[in-house]
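Z., the sequence and structure:
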Amino acid sequence: MDRFEGHIAGIGTSSGTRLVVGCWDTSPFGAFTDVMMEDAAGVRTLLAPSREVAEYVGATYSFDDVVVTGVRSTLTADRLVVETGELRVVAELGRVTLLGRLLGLVPRRLATHPRWLALVNPVAPLLVKGVATAGSAGHGRTEYYGVTSARAVTAVTATWQGGDLGALAPVSPPVRFGFSSAPPRPQLVTVTTSIRHPEP
């Protein structure tokens, strides 16, 4: 079982580009940040900081293009900044959402346990459209998302290859990287992602 602990930001822009940023404090690869991006035409791109991360994430999710590039991120109490060679994102963060407060009532050990996440998976899309807590990660892997808090993203400034991606917008249509989309409402969640590999 591989465990990734950190934060995921789901952000939509008025250009139709949707971004899913993973800021991982601990993982099998140490601390790193990666970006999954889907544009208005549906082209899915992974920006990964190393070939090793690119191969792992590329085998877990689906992309049309994979770019290995330096990815830097800074997360503070009120802002997330992400920079690569061609992408820059500055997301302003608001308060913990109502759902985030409710999630915080569940003991963390339970909220991130794969058995619990498999149990609540049928209910998850009823609470947040397009979201799942357990599902297939490809190549026989099973993935579990254990979210323990959520904060609203209130504004964003983003550029890609020198072009402005526009103002903050819902993450719509849902992104198509894996079995779960980011919530339609832009937000930053605290999450433990667990990936179970098939038995040899």
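Helices lie at 51-60, 98-103, 108-111, 114-120, 124-127. Residues 2-196 form one domain.

Let me know what you think.
H.
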